[in-house]
Amino acid sequence: MRSSAYHCGVDVRQLRCFVAVAEELHFGRAAARLHVAGPAVSQTIRSMENELGLRLFNRTNRRVELTDAGGLLLTEARAVLDRFDGAMAAMARLRSGDSGTVRIGVVPALPPQLVPTLLARCAAELAGIDVVVTALRSGPAPEEILGHEADIVLVRGEITAPAIKSAVLAREPVGVALPADHPLAAQPAISASDLNGQPLISFARASDPVEYDRLFGALASAGLTELRLVNESHPGAVDASLRLIARGTGLSPKLRSEVDAFGSAAIVWRPLADTALDVTISAAWRADAHAPPVARVLALLTAPETD
């Protein structure tokens, strides 16, 4: 007798993509969180809907909403992924020596070449160790993530927490990204007071209050008394904010590496003249993390690069 059972072809990669879109309710932010191209996310969701025969999202030009089917699948998908990740972690703990899986969680808006450079070094120097990078939402402290979602986390700022070790990987000064034809672009450096009344593009305070207050508090102390925000974006939406700058929408506090990676002649970067404001990038891990693969990745991560 022929079985009438339905065999679903949805895989774990697709479930991760679906959960990202369902949590962000925005295809672009989901793509940034997953470190993939936007069209790939849309194609994955369409493929899932075709496979399931159900619509998972209602989409318009302005918003994305979960359908009833999508809401049900989100609950089940999270449970499946939790169990899958737990099983993979258990298998990794059984391994020893030079093989294994190391999970690295990264927050949004790290310097653009940091993660690609790390992955390239791991591939070249740590054959047999699989390094899996997962985008993390801003908010949870490293101690809440380590050991559960990741073995190592890369974050902005320096980390001080019980039972957590950390190392500073890089420091980079914050400057100003602005249209190349803006009057302030003629200056070699920009003062905080030069930004008074200028249309500014930044991430929303609600998305990262600590970093927001550190940034704009320092600028206020240096002379920014008339803050005029014209666009508040997701912390990881660096390219989106740079596109707005290229169109002349406004100016934005940015790292030079972010502007260089964007590669547009329509945008220039200038240092701040009177504000010593750096972005510090740190790696953090549990003090009791003794798995050999994690130790090898940490040794590579914290060692100085050589030519």
Give an account of the 3D structure.
The protein has helices at 12-24, 27-34, 38-52, 68-94, 114-125, 142-145, 209-221, 238-246, 256-262, 292-302, and strands spanning 57-59, 64-66, 100-106, 129-135, 152-156, 164-179, 199-203, 228-233, 252-255, 267-271, 278-286. Residues 1-5 have low confidence and may be disordered. Strands 3, 4, 5, 6, 9, 10 and 11 form a seven-stranded mixed β-sheet that branches. The protein is globular and about 60 Å long. It has three domains: 12-83, Orthogonal Bundle (Arc Repressor Mutant, subunit A); 91-167 and 280-302, 3-Layer(aba) Sandwich (D-Maltodextrin-Binding Protein, domain 2), CATH 3.40.190.10; 171-278, Periplasmic binding protein-like II (D-Maltodextrin-Binding Protein, domain 2, 3-Layer(aba) Sandwich). Helix 2 packs across helix 3. The protein is of the alpha/beta class and 307 residues long.
